[in-house]
Amino acid sequence: MSRKLLLENAHIEGIRYYDVYRKNGGYRSVEKALKMTPEEVVEEVKKSGLRGRGGAGFPTGMKWSFIAKPEGVPRHLVCNADESEPGTFKDRYLMEFLPHLLIEGLIVSSYALGSNTTYIYIRGEYAWIPDILEQAIAEAKANGFLGKNILNTGFDCEIYVQRGAGAYICGEETALIESLEGKRGNPRIKPPFPAVKGAWDRPTVVNNVETLAAVVPIINMGGEEYAKIGVGRSTGTKLISACGNINKPGVYEIDMTISVEEFIFSEEWCGGIKNGKRLKACIPGGSSVPILPANLLLKTAKGEPRMMNYESLADGGFATGTMMGSGGFIVFDEDQCVVKNTYTLARFYRHESCGQCSPCREGTGWMEKLLLRLEKGQGKTSDIDLLWDIQSKIEGNTICPLGDAAAWPVAAAIRHFRDEFEWHVTHAAEAQT
Amino acid sequence: MIQFSEEQLNKVSEIIARYPEGKQKSALLPVLHLAQDVFGWLSTETMDYVASLLKIEPIEVYEVATFYTMYNLKPVGKYVFEVCQTGPCMIQGSDDIIAYIEEKLSIKPGETTADGMFTLKAAECLGACGYAPMMQMGKYYKEHLTKEKVDAIIAECRSDISVNN
Ligand SMILES: NC(=O)C1=CN([C@@H]2O[C@H](COP(=O)(O)OP(=O)(O)OC[C@H]3O[C@@H](n4cnc5c(N)ncnc54)[C@H](O)[C@@H]3O)[C@@H](O)[C@H]2O)C=CC1
Ligand SMILES: Cc1cc2nc3c(=O)[nH]c(=O)nc-3n(C[C@H](O)[C@H](O)[C@H](O)COP(=O)(O)O)c2cc1C
Ligand code: SF4
Ligand code: FES
């Protein structure tokens, strides 16, 4: 049984509402944090070892300590709820079922960063969730946890929800900031990082929904205690959204000490492969991380069991490993076609490229066309090499990592499943059906 | 004449007040959502009206309205089915669902039925991969789709019962 810190109370009837949430220990972290100095709160988060849950895994406490504090310039916290990475639906679950946990985390984090106006930027398609969040915000405000002079400490804070309008790229933090400013979501060149120059050129910290929710248990239990959960630099718990050909798709909280095998086959989690089929492959961290065949997924190249944590998933680099990414865990059974799946992902990235950089704009379109041709049994062997060549020229040559995110799945699919691509060429007639 | 009601104008002021003084352009995305809710789609006239409300140039509105997929730049049907077709939904049969809707309504993705009732769109991952196949319909999601469920949804729309959960 894995320890739960975020979803512990998710099953409680009415937990979406303030009274029930409060009765179950809600908002204690605000009471505790507001008696500390903001620096002490940052220090607890540093000690916790918490790493950003949006995908990049950057240490949250360190990011917070980088926020610039020019005299007289307001600072902002922005919650990244744009969640659009295929396979990822954990933030939606948190916001839908435990909206107060996010709001509580946002209040504590806003205090730590000195943000008096905090924004939640949520993907536009989650159109019913802003109502849930705004209700939670209103309840928190009515109970003195938001608004002016919170708990008589002199700290003021307002939280506003802004909806996006259908653009995956707006999950990239600088594109998100552009969008918040009422513009197209074109990523900015970093540095400067948002922590120095963000929304309206003010110091801005952008954090994922799950990261900000995790601040609540960290403050409640103390950073050191939190850091004891998990292993190595993978501290605390992680939400995994599991989907694909498994018996029990859904959102799970794990403590990063379990193996991938347990996660897929245990009744506590995914419950095994559907219809008694065999496991073929898995994309464990959202569509942009490398796909792994079953053998490399369950065991590292060194033959050790692969564990559900940042280090173990990345073991072997891109040659034999993958990444934790956003925790979007996509499982494929033996009947699934890697070429077709890779084609849908290429189409996704072509659709979502903002078009600023030519390697990304042109490369994603080209990859999509080649993959469609191969998938339809109309490709040549040289198309596979061309595909490899194109992806290698996108990586590292663009303003934001969407280019990399588009290149990696293609590279990994060819690396591990080249025979399947070749089959589509040599068995053209069968591939066409 | 494109014109918000008194109440809607108050909502616009409330949205503008969420952003720093002088940064009312930041209200553009939410105000476009509001305009689309009220007028059904974003005509040039509507976009120009939004520009005047936020005191920005019309081109700044067109730029944004054309970038984001959720803004409709032409009229759509009363019910819009946006079926997700990305990997995780594809491996759970989204292609069949799209084909079934195409056949049932005699339209292709991107088209609207002659009676103006239904628009079909193929969408990319909507964050419901564990409940696949799925589609967005207006404000809500319809998940775990089957042919029978599609039939039921279409029948409900036709009989104009409130279908939103
Ligand atoms: N959750 C989702 O739906 C998706 C997540 N992703 C993930 O996003 C990741 C890439 O995100 P990026 O923000 O481009 O990664 P990044 O590594 O550039 O930055 C990570 C965070 O650390 C901060 N940071 C890094 N160095 C800093 C410094 N010196 N000073 C201050 N702050 C600093 C950045 O501002 C950012 O907030 C990918 O690894 C991918 O897994 C990608 C697509 C979708
Ligand atoms: C193309 C692209 C899309 C992204 N989408 C998201 C997203 O939907 N949600 C998210 O939290 N981070 C997303 N990120 C990562 C953010 O840029 C940023 O690293 C993150 O919000 C920081 O929060 P964290 O430190 O709490 O993880 C994306 C990055 C890229 C390159
Ligand atoms: S890499 Fe792609 S999405 Fe990112 S800025 Fe360049 S063109 Fe835009
Ligand atoms: S792939 Fe369809 S909702 Fe994610």
Task: Report on this structure.
Chain B: This is NADH dehydrogenase subunit E. Chain B: It comes from Niabella soli DSM 19437. The complex is a heterodimer of chains A (433) and B (165). Chain A has 433 residues and is α/β, with parallel strands linked by helices. Helices cover 44% and strands 14% of the residues of chain A. Chain A has helices spanning 18-23, 28-33, 38-48, 60-65, 90-97, 99-113, 129-142, 173-180, 209-221, 223-228, 260-265, 294-298, 310-314, 317-320, 338-352, 358-375, 381-394, 402-426, 428-431, and strands at 75-81, 115-122, 147-150, 155-163, 204-208, 230-231, 234-235, 238-244, 250-254, 279-283, 292-293, 328-333. Chain A has a 5-stranded mixed β-sheet. A 5-stranded mixed β-sheet of chain A has the order 9-8-12-10-11. Chain A has a two-stranded antiparallel sheet with strand order 6-7. In chain A, a hairpin with a 5-residue loop joins β8 and β9. The longest helix of chain A has 25 residues, at 402-426. Chain A is globular. The termini of chain A are far apart. Chain B has 165 residues and is of the alpha+beta class. Chain B has a 4-stranded mixed β-sheet, covered by helices on one side. Chains A and B meet through β4, β8, β12 and α15 of A and α2, α4 and α5 of B. The complex binds 1,4-dihydronicotinamide adenine dinucleotide, flavin mononucleotide (FMN), iron/sulfur cluster and FE2/S2 (inorganic) cluster (FES). FE2/S2 (inorganic) cluster is lined by residues 84, 86, 88-89, 125-129, 132, 134 of chain B.
